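Bumping with the actual sequence this time:
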Amino acid sequence: MSYETSETSEMPAAPGSAAAARGPGLRWNKVPEVTVYFWVIKVLCTTVGETAADMLNEKLGLGLTGVSLLMSVLLAAVLVWQFRTPAYRAGVYWLAVALISVVGTLISDNLTDNLGVPLALSTTVFAIVLTVVFVVWYRRERTLSIHDIDTLSRESFYWLAVLFTFALGTAAGDLVAERMSLGYWVSALLFALAIAAVAVVHFALGFDAVWSFWIAYVLTRPLGASVGDYLSQPTADGGLGLGTVVTSVLFLAVILGLVVFLTVTRKDVTERERVTLPAG
């Protein structure tokens, strides 16, 4: 299922050509095609973001601030790797998404737990910041389409937007859970229905594909978090009691399997780039 479409852009230059040597100019698209695999791995990464953040905070003994700094450094290193790759590589890309999921969760948790910022306020602030990112991105590039992440500028805006979608999704999900006390599975069902509603208004009513994609992208964060909390939290709190370690390892294993599958089959690479992009 894909929410996102765009007009075909100029064909990437061949390796070794003058166009390919332009540095931050035209490159191959740096993100995957939006397929069912994309959404499955995205939800799994959001689940890992929730459970891994809790696990690291519990097990490392560094405190919330220490864990946040450690994961931010790791994320920065992986993003440097991602930016330096000439085209989309499933392993690097999804490692960056998994880490940005953890960091986005920790940003929201720090504001709530360490600084005492109300969830309603942090949700509002993250929504405003994300809106500003989109406005500046569009004014500069004239597109928010993820089919055209083929310049350094667009890739920078893309990852900044992804970071704040995770932070916003975390704060908004916690706000809904706190205010409504729905329980993990009911919360998951609520967000799943919201995503389904976005799909309906897009496919049936023609709602803009780009905005449909980004709205669904935000909503998958609290969906994955609700599933992760249900699996990891104690039975006395309404969960299955698997714990954060087991839940994180389980979901990471599934993500790894899917990423290996996509690396081999290249099913999440656009047809244009499947023809021109070197394997590997």
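The tokens above came from a reply further down the thread. Residues 5-26 have pLDDT under 50 and may be disordered.
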